[in-house]
């Protein structure tokens, strides 16, 4: 048995190493090519740079109007994720603690909506609400993100809340706490792991989204993914600057994940995703 376990662990290690390399290699290529000039990239994109050059980063910072785009991305992501956490956690708490047909139907509708592709709903949804929502502003985009992200966030919160004993709610009620007070002061602090999971999943989606901001925002309010599109000309593409722009755009969200990764793993291990 010990020999079989040893072989199994070695096989698992080898397979894991290969998968990790296959996953990291594209990111490595992006970073390496961001340090090369355009002729080197066209000659051999897989080769290491003969001479490291940071010109692509300086030019990307200027052309992207990086700090304005970074500010727009931070505002949109922070507000959207915050609203999603507030609304979806409260809705999930109601659905998990209210045992009736209405709550079951609402939860079924939310789960069913997750099956429909996002792109299939986006254009009709925007066309329907065009007469009510003022376009070309960050508020409209945040509104759409809340609508499209509520289903998954509520589903994740619902699975976690279902594992929290109802006796905690009953004890808070005996002490005179209302449902709202019990939720925000007792239940919600207990959901820190799943809150981190919801925050990371939605932040990754919103931060890297290109299509929806492309339809809603203008150049003055464009996000980082939109700003990288400026490097694509009609007849030529500045590949080095594109790679540098992608590296600059991904750094903030990677830092955000590294800060919350322990909570993220804890949320999954405690039944956040089923």
What does this protein look like?
With 274 residues, the protein is mainly alpha-helical. The chain has one domain: MetI-like fold (Orthogonal Bundle), CATH 1.10.3720.10. It is built from 13 helices and no strands. The radius of gyration is 23 Å and the shape is globular. The protein starts with a helix and ends in a 5-residue tail after the last helix. The mean pLDDT is 82.
Our Rg estimate from Cα atoms comes to 23 Å
Which CATH top level class fits?
Mainly Alpha
Task: Please count the helical segments.
Answer: 13
CATH architecture descriptor name? Orthogonal Bundle
| Shape, principal axes of CA atoms | globular
- What kind of oligomer do you see? single chain
């Amino acid at each position: 048995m010990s020999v079989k376990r040893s072989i199994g662990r070695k096989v698992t290690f080898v397979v894991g190493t290969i998968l990790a390399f296959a996953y990291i290699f594209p990111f490595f290529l992006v970073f390496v090519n961001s340090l090369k000039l355009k002729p080197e990239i066209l000659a051999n994109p897989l080769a290491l740079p003969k001479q490291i050059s940071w010109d692509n980063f300086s030019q990307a910072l200027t052309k992207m109007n990086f700090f304005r785009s970074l500010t727009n991305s931070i505002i949109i992501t922070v507000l959207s994720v915050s609203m999603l956490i507030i609304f979806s956690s409260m809705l999930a708490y109601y659905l998990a603690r209210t045992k009736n047909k209405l709550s079951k139907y609402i939860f079924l509708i939310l789960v069913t909506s997750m099956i429909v592709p996002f792109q299939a709903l986006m254009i009709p949804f925007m066309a329907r609400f065009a007469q009510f929502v003022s376009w070309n502003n960050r508020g409209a985009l945040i509104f759409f993100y809340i609508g499209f992200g509520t289903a998954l966030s509520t589903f994740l919160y619902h699975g976690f809340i279902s594992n929290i004993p109802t006796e905690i709610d009953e004890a808070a009620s005996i002490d005179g706490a209302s449902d709202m007070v019990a939720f925000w002061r007792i239940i919600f602090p207990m959901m820190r792991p799943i809150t981190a999971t919801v925050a990371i999943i939605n932040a990754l989606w919103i931060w890297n989204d290109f299509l929806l901001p492309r339809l809603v925002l203008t150049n003055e309010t464009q996000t980082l993914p939109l700003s990288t599109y400026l490097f694509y000309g009609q007849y030529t593409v500045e590949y080095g600057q594109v790679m540098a722009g992608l590296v600059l755009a991904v750094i903030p969200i990677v830092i955000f994940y590294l800060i919350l990764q322990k909570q993220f793993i804890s949320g999954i291990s405690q039944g956040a995703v089923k």
